[in-house]
Design goal:
alpha/beta, eight-stranded parallel beta barrel, globular, binds alpha-L-arabinofuranose
Length: 517
C-alpha cells in the first residue's frame, strides 16, 4: 500500500515537471467573416460623481483659478479626456445623485446654496458645478450626457421639472429660466437613470417597492421637443439576481436598460480591500481573478433578463465598474483616492474584454471614476496631472468603439498561483467600418511571456499595422507626479503573419493593440 502511494506521488511529480517544461499553447481562432454584434462605444463610458476631488479640482477649478483652465475646466484634463473620445459621462452620482436637488446647481454661481455632501466626507458642496457646467463639459468632450436622477429623496415632479428645464424648446417658465441662465437652445439628453443603488444608498428599498416606484417615476420622465430619453432602471451589484428578476418582471416594457454594478476588490474582504501600491503577487493575482467574476455576474443577470426580454431589447448597463482598493494613506476620509498600477491596467483590459464579449446585452458601461476617484483615468495634484495606466488601456481600446465583435475561440495557458489558476491570455478582436481588424490582447502572467497565435478564418488579410504595447517592470508599477510616464505605451511591431496565422510573443503583465488589413 505504501509502495503504491509512493509510485502515485512519483507519477504526479513527473507529470508536474514535464508539464511545466512544455510551454502551453495559446491559440485564438478568429472567425473574421462572422460577427453579429456591434461593440457599442458606450461601453467605454465614464462616471464622474460629486465625490472627493473628482469634479472639484479634478475637472472644474473655476474661471478665476491659477490652474490654466478653459471656461473653468482644467485645460490639461480636458485635453487628456478629449483624446479618449469618451462616448458618455454619468453624473452627478452615484450615491450623491439621490440627495441632489438640481435647482441648487443653476443660476449665478455666487448665489447658489451651500449644501452638505453627506455621503462623501461631509464636505460643503458649493454647487458651483451644476447642470450647465456638466452639460457644457459633455459638449467640450463630444460625449453624451448620462444624467442620474434622484428617486431616493426627490419627487417625480422635481425629476420632470429637471427634464423640462434641460430639454424643452418651447415657452414655459422652466425653459425661460434656462434661457435666463444663459442657455437658449435646449440640450439633447439621452441616457437617464431613474435612481441609483435604490437597494442601498439610494433609498434602501425592496425590489418590489422599487419596481413600483420605477414605474411611477419613469412616467414623468417625459420626452420634450423631440428629445428621446433612454431610461435606465437601478439594478443591483454582483450576484443579486432576484432584484433584476423582480424589476424586469414588473417594468421591463417601461425601460431601455437596467444597471449592474461590479467593483473588483483585490483584498480578502470589503473591509480589507488591499493597498493600491506596493502589493505583492498575491494581491496582483487575486485582483485579476476577482475582475473575471464580472463575466459570471453578467451571465447571471442576462439569464434573468432573457426570461422577460428574449429579444434582448433591454440592455444591461454596467454603469459602475472598476477596482476599489483601500484609500491612499494620508488621503482624506471618504474621498476614495487610490493609485493606479499595471495590475489595474490589466483589470481594465480583462473587464473590457468581458464587456465587449457580452455586446449582445451590454450596450453601456461606465468605469468608476474619471479623475482622482477609484480606478481613475487621471490623477491631479494641484496644478499637476498624470495619466494612469488605466487611461492608456482606454486609449488603446478606442479601436473597438462601434466596431463589429468578431467571434473567437480562445485556448489559453494557465497562470497558476498558490494552487489556483486564471487564463494567461485575454483578447478582443473586432472589425471596423473600413474593414480593418483590430486585436487587443493581454498577458496576465506576472513573470512569464506568452506565445500566441491568432488563426484568421474567412479573410485573406495579410498585412499587420503596428500598434502599441503597455507593460511595466513590476506588477505594481504606477505613474507618479515625479515620473508620469513610468507606465506608458511603446510602439509594437513584433507580430508576424503567414498563411493567415498571426504570431507574437507578449511579455509578462502586458497589453497590446495592433491592426490587420
Ligand atoms: O463609485 C462610488 C460609489 O459606489 C457610488 O456612489 C455608488 O453608487 C457605489 O456604491
Amino acid at each position: 500500500m505504501l509502495a503504491g502511494k509512493i509510485i502515485r506521488s512519483l507519477l504526479v511529480f513527473l507529470f508536474l515537471c514535464t508539464s511545466s517544461l512544455v510551454a502551453q499553447q495559446n491559440r485564438v481562432i478568429v472567425n473574421a467573416d462572422q460577427g453579429e454584434y456591434t461593440i457599442s462605444r458606450h461601453i467605454y463610458g465614464q462616471f464622474s460623481e460629486h465625490l472627493g476631488r473628482g469634479i472639484y479640482e479634478g475637472i472644474w477649478v473655476g474661471e478665476d483659478s491659477d490652474i490654466p483652465n478653459t471656461e473653468g475646466y482644467r485645460t490639461d484634463v480636458l485635453k487628456a479626456l478629449q483624446e479618449l473620445e469618451i462616448p458618455n459621462i454619468r453624473w452627478p452620482g452615484g450615491c450623491f445623485a439621490d440627495e441632489y436637488d438640481w435647482r441648487d446647481g443653476i443660476g449665478p454661481r455666487s448665489e447658489r446654496p451651500k449644501t452638505v455632501n453627506t455621503h462623501w466626507g461631509m464636505v460643503t458642496e458649493d454647487n458651483s458645478f451644476g447642470t450647465h457646467e456638466f452639460l457644457r463639459l459633455t459638449e467640450l468632450l463630444g460625449a453624451e450626457p448620462y444624467i442620474s436622477a434622484n428617486v431616493g429623496s426627490g419627487t417625480p415632479a422635481q425629476m420632470q421639472d429637471w427634464v423640462e428645464y434641460m430639454t424643452y424648446a418651447g415657452e414655459s417658465d422652466l425653459a425661460n429660466l434656462r434661457r435666463q441662465n444663459g442657455r437658449e437652445e435646449p440640450w439633447k439628453i439621452k441616457f437617464f437613470g431613474i435612481g441609483n443603488e435604490s437597494w442601498g444608498c439610494g433609498g434602501n428599498m425592496t425590489a418590489d417597492y422599487y419596481a413600483d416606484l420605477y414605474r411611477r417615476y419613469q412616467t414623468y420622465a417625459k420626452d420634450y421637443s423631440g428629445n428621446e430619453l433612454y431610461k435606465i432602471a437601478s439594478g443591483w451589484s454582483n450576484a443579486e439576481y432576484d432584484w433584476t428578476e423582480t424589476v424586469m418582471r414588473e417594468a421591463h416594457d417601461m425601460m431601455d436598460a437596467i444597471s449592474l454594478h461590479y467593483y473588483t476588490v483585490p483584498g480578502p474582504s470589503w473591509e480589507n480591500k488591499g493597498p493600491s501600491t506596493g502589493f505583492g503577487e498575491e494581491l496582483y493575482f487575486d485582483g485579476l481573478k476577482a475582475s473575471l467574476e464580472l463575466d459570471r455576474y453578467i451571465e447571471g443577470h442576462a439569464t434573468r433578463m432573457d426570461k422577460y426580454d428574449p429579444e434582448k431589447r433591454v440592455a444591461l448597463a454596467v454603469d459602475e465598474w472598476g477596482v476599489w482598493t483601500d484609500p491612499l494613506p494620508g488621503s482624506r476620509s471618504g474621498f476614495l483616492y487610490q493609485q493606479n498600477s499595471m495590475r489595474d491596467a490589466l483589470i481594465a483590459s480583462l473587464s473590457l474584454d468581458i464587456l465587449n464579449a457580452h455586446s449582445d446585452r451590454v450596450r453601456i458601461a461606465n468605469i468608476a471614476q474619471t479623475v482622482n476617484v477609484l480606478q481613475a483615468m487621471i490623477l491631479t495634484d494641484g496644478p499637476r496631472m498624470i495619466k494612469t495606466p488605466t487611461y492608456h488601456v482606454f486609449h488603446m481600446y478606442k479601436v473597438h468603439h462601434d466596431a463589429t465583435l468578431l467571434p473567437v475561440k480562445v485556448t489559453s495557458a494557465d497562470y497558476r498561483y498558490d494552487g489556483e489558476s486564471i487564463p494567461a491570455i485575454s483578447t478582443t478582436v473586432s472589425r471596423n467600418k473600413e474593414g480593418v481588424i483590430h486585436i487587443t490582447a493581454s498577458n496576465t502572467h506576472a513573470s512569464e511571456s506568452q506565445e500566441i497565435t491568432f488563426d484568421l478564418r474567412g479573410t485573406d488579410i495579410d498585412r499587420i499595422i503596428p500598434g502599441r504595447l503597455l507593460t511595466a517592470d513590476q506588477i505594481n508599477a504606477v505613474n507618479t507626479f515625479e515620473d508620469p510616464d513610468n507606465v506608458s505605451p511603446v510602439m509594437f511591431d513584433d507580430a508576424t503573419i503567414s498563411n493567415g496565422t498571426v504570431s507574437m510573443t507578449l511579455p509578462p503583465r502586458s497589453i497590446v493593440v495592433f491592426g490587420l488589413q
